[in-house]
From TrEMBL:
It comes from the Eukaryota. The chain crosses the membrane at residues 282-302. Residues 374-417 are annotated as: Disordered. Keywords: Membrane, Transmembrane, Transmembrane helix. This is Uncharacterized protein.
Length: 463
């Protein structure tokens, strides 16, 4: 998380106090508002186009304001020397070849006052564009409430709504009645801004924040559709504040409101107390089950093999020299499924990063002139190069191949056995049927090996 943020106050804001006056005619007499596209004003209430600046050629002309923060930066141009006083500490005979007139980033967090004083000689000028206030705090969330939000804003007196294409949102609230006011109650904020209109015909107004009043002036020869009418930083987010803005000039003079903005600190996420992972426990259980199954299957196979061996050994003396036992074996086994893997290229796909735009406006001239709003990069995910795992082995346990020993070819025709031999053979068979082997209770009776073969086949197939 970023640990600092900034807010830019434009030179047209009434929070700046200009000496000898805010706006006039002739830079030699004091300050005059100028726009990079329109130039100097020739018609009252004319909307300016381009970047604004207060310009003076009057020695001793100054601008003063107070701010809450840990750093300050003044932007503008000057071909003369000037002084800057911060909290009564002077930096004299300064000059600047760039658009940064003054910068101080090591202030203690708190409320500070600053005065910029121009010292031009013949033909020299100083132009003041804006002030950038830095606060060493986590970037807050900015919440903007439109002037039409009557749930958040409470209007008293004689107010009306008007429209203008130059105003953000196109709609603003206006009053010409002395004593008309708008108020709100809020909390959870570290700074508050009131945005409104400065124009020819507008005049004094007061802003009260928890009883502390500021008297300001919204009058200019220009029509300035949206600027900061009031700013206060260093608020306590745990405290409730009552903000009240009132028209204190005579009837007929105008006060116009666009919006109220709150800067709300975001709660820091405490490090989650990581619970002991049960991954190892689960893996151990799975491994134990697998081992147990393997032991059970091995025991079953061993037991069956032992039984077959017992039966075979008990029958060995009955096996004739030319007796052939059938054999079965599996020649194909199922292929193991390969686990999914992520390639290094896929793993490195990340959204492109863009620099943060300072809250309150950019301090870069080229960005201000182009008014470019840069949004977050998007990362387009490439198709997954890995399809479903496929078993390229065509065989499985269901494809057990049963092999029998080949029978001898070219068998001789059967020999005719005399009747006397038949009687002798029957006697031998009868004598064998009386042998004790038949009473072995621990061994199953001999099974047809072909039946055993098919039994193994279907058991494995079902498994």
């Amino acid at each position: 998380m970023a640990t600092s943020w900034n807010i830019t106050l434009n030179d047209t804001s009434p929070v700046f106090t200009y000496y000898p006056y805010y706006d006039g005619f002739g830079t030699g007499n004091g300050w005059q508002v100028w726009y990079s596209e329109t130039g100097y004003n020739t018609v009252f209430a004319n909307p300016g186009v381009g970047i604004s600046a207060h310009i003076t050629s009057l020695p001793g002309a100054n601008v003063t304001f107070s701010f809450y923060g840990t750093g300050i930066e003044l932007h503008g141009t000057a071909n003369c020397t000037f002084d800057v006083a911060v909290d009564g500490i002077f930096s004299s005979s300064l000059s600047s070849p760039s658009d940064v007139l003054y910068s101080k980033q090591t202030l203690s967090e708190g409320t500070h006052s600053l005065t910029l004083t121009a010292h031009p000689t013949s033909g020299q000028q100083l132009a003041f564009e804006n002030a950038v206030i830095y606060i060493d705090q986590a970037i807050p969330k900015m919440v903007s409430y439109s002037n039409t939000n009557t749930t958040f804003l409470n209007y008293t007196g004689n107010w009306s709504t008007a429209t203008d294409v130059h105003v953000p949102g196109g709609v603003f609230h206006s009053t010409k009645t002395m004593g008309s006011s708008v108020s709100t109650t809020f909390g959870g904020s570290s700074a508050v801004l009131v945005q409104g209109i400065v124009n020819w015909g507008n005049w004094q107004y007061t802003v009260s924040l928890n009883g502390t009043q500021s008297v300001l002036n919204a009058s200019s020869f220009w029509f300035i559709p949206d600027t900061t009418l009031f700013y206060e930083g260093g608020l306590d987010p745990t405290q409730i504040y009552i903000l009240n803005i009132a028209d204190t000039s005579e009837d007929g003079n105008i006060l116009e409101i666009n919006s109220v903005k709150l800067y709300q600190p975001q709660p820091t996420t405490p490090p989650s107390s990581s619970k002991p992972s049960n991954t190892g426990e689960i893996a151990g259980i799975i491994a134990g089950v697998v081992v147990l199954l393997a032991l059970v299957v091995g025991f079953l196979f061993w037991r069956r093999s032992w039984r077959l061996k017992t039966v075979t050994s008990a029958r060995n003396f009955n096996v004739q020299a030319n007796e052939i036992t059938p054999k079965a074996r599996a020649t194909h086994f199922p292929a193991l499924v390969a686990p999914y893997t992520i390639s290094s290229t896929t793993a490195k796909i990340r959204p492109e990063k863009f620099p943060l735009t300072p809250i309150g406006g950019s301090t870069d001239d080229s960005l201000r002139e182009r008014a470019i709003a840069r949004g977050p990069g998007s990362a387009t995910s490439s198709p997954d190069p890995y399809g479903e795992p496929r078993n390229n082995m065509s065989g499985s346990l269901s494809f057990l191949e049963v092999h029998h020993s080949p029978r001898p070819s070219g068998l001789e025709p059967p020999v005719q056995i005399p009747d006397s031999e038949v009687d002798r053979i029957l006697g031998i068979i009868a004598s064998r049927m009386d042998m004790p082997e038949r009473n072995l209770s621990s061994s199953p009776p001999p099974q047809d090996m072909n039946m055993s073969k098919h039994y193994i086949f279907f058991v494995l197939q079902d498994a």
